[in-house]
Known about the structure:
Blueprint: H1 2-14, H2 20-29, E1 40-41, E2 47-48, H3 51-61, H4 80-88, H5 95-103, H6 118-123, H7 125-142, H8 147-150, E3 152-158, E4 169-175, H9 177-190
Antiparallel strand pairs: 1-2, 3-4
Amino acid sequence: MRKARECLELNLAKDVKDNKKGFFEYSSSKRKTRDNVGPLLNEVGTLVTEDAEKTELLNAFFPSVSTAKANPQEPQTLEVEDRAWSKKHSLSITEDQVRDHLSKLYTHKSMGPDGMHLQVLREVADVIAKPLSIIFEKSWRRGEVPEDWRKANAMPVFKKGKKEDPGHYSSVSLTSIPGKVMEQLILYVIS
């Protein structure tokens, strides 16, 4: 069964140019999430079962990841010395570096908010290395990160104790994989 699924996924990744519909149907079918947070107790000790109420309750415990309004970050302006440094030590992210990094992705990690599985990125590394290297380079030069890469899915993860207590959950942010790849490449290049 496992081999058949691996074979199917490999064929879908190889034929992505010719069979886009099949590829996106399969990837969409894998994006389904399950309800993993059961009923929670609110401040007065009543069980909360509605998703919206559970969300509000958990947001009260995770104020750092839940804001009323998401504000896009303003690009930072460089000082004169920083501009001189950036011109002297220009960063260059090559297509080969991106391809190499994508081909070494650990495929057993979670998908980000874009829903793209790491195995797919790994399989199509040769095709997307050039466009990604251009995006990374422009992003670095402008000092801006694409808006989609700033989004994250905050997931409550149960730690220990009673599952009904919202205080026994911690928040984990799942961020975009291309954004993480860019961060790691820039760190590699500047260090």
